[in-house]
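Contributing: when you submit paired examples, paste them exactly as shown. First protein:
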Amino acid sequence: MRREITGFSNPTVKFLRSLREKKHRKASGKFLAEGLRLLTDARECGHLPEMLVLSSQRDPHPLLEALERDVMQIGGDIIETSPDILEKITGKSNPQAVVGVFAEFDTSLAAVERKGSDIWLVAQALRDPGNLGTVLRTGDAVGAGGLILVDDCADPFSVEAVRASMGAIFTQKIARAPWAEFHQWLRSGPGQLVAASLREAVPYRGAPYTSPCFILVGNESQGLPEEYEAVCDLRVTMPMKGRADSLNAAMAAAVLAYEVLAGLEG
């Protein structure tokens, strides 16, 4: 169905704005994604928005036309509105010309096929949505199967995390679980758990990585709990040549992921 919305007080506008808050995303099971490139990535990965919100001042584009056509074919809603209302919906000045509303994915560990990839990323208590999105992007770049979020992490479906993922939210499997559940699941099948650590660690270059490899990074400020590191199969360290004593969590995940990739392919 295609319709136009011109008022800020329209119930649909209020609903869309509410999706910027975690409690409303959780209640509705929906999330927002912005921009033609990101929505095109989603479409190419088999994910179509249930609702497409278009700026009345958008420029024509064949990819946008294809997206509109596919949304119409699945019975989705297409809404035209002003740039000012889009700004209210996204909370971003100069918003993108198109926004999509998607159903959240199944984030249970049961949906993870561990043998489907040689590399998986695992983040424990990662709090910054920008870092979370960057880790998803790294996973896509190295061909990882996905990202498993352990304990109290930022919401992967927040506008900020989705934006930072640059479309990787649609290419990477996402799972969420408490540590005990994750650890039990991991030990129920094949999988090497590797942590970036300073405790009894070996150099990350040339370490004995095996597939499937689960790369574990910790909280931005606290790092990994000692008891979590203790049960890892391998602890590796990266040299710090300057005054910094550690890397940003997302950066550490990227450096380690590429080393694991090289080790498994070598």
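Second protein:
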Amino acid sequence: MPITCIAIDDDPHSLESLVSYIENSPDLALIKTFADPLQALSEISVSTSVDIIFMDIEMPTISGIELASLLRQKTKHLIFTTAHTRYAIDAFKVEADAYLLKPYSILNFIKTIGNLYPNGKKDSNPLTVFEDHYFYIPMQDESGSLIKIDLDELISIENSHQEIEFITINTNYKSAKLDFIKIMKMLKKHPAFLQISENIIIAKQHIKSVLGNQVLLSGEISYPIANSHLALFNSFLESNLLKDKNLPNT
């Protein structure tokens, strides 16, 4: 099945270029275009969901960021197209999957689609944000900077009060701008991570030892395993125990 798309941009030249790129990509099917963001809101709100919405940010009446917050549930992937880098943090907040900086080439366009659909199919890995083994988080301060988190160095993620702490081999990072529930849903599907309580996710490769319901990780970090997650954790341990096939089960 083709990857269905909608394009929203009030700039006719930008919209024309985007439409051309979509129409020249055999795996993409353009459903509709909008130059008026309010018309897009009205029609998309009551229409069937699509695979990708391409959306400009600086538009009259309502910005692309505001529009995205209202339409995010109507698309699997959201790609912003803009001439301004200053919106990167705002794009992150509304769960944008990609950020095409105008003027972007057909090669950049194809690469972006390829990151979301590496096989050119709709049944691709839903964790495309992790295909390069890293992701970015906004810093807790007001600098607007992003920090790269390498999955191989990530030991655990803790949700406490109004902030989320990312504990890595070398440094700990805190961010108050992320949704822990969404991160949890993504990492729970990733085979390298395991949730051990309502507020803690750990990397399996950094588990050093387990004593009772206490797990010790790299960096001498220790956590209790919540009763609600003991069964899941014990299942993980059982599947990774070294067993002698010649010994009878006891």
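If you have annotations for the second protein, write them as plain sentences, like these:
The radius of gyration is 22 Å.
Residues 123-129 have pLDDT under 50 and may be disordered.
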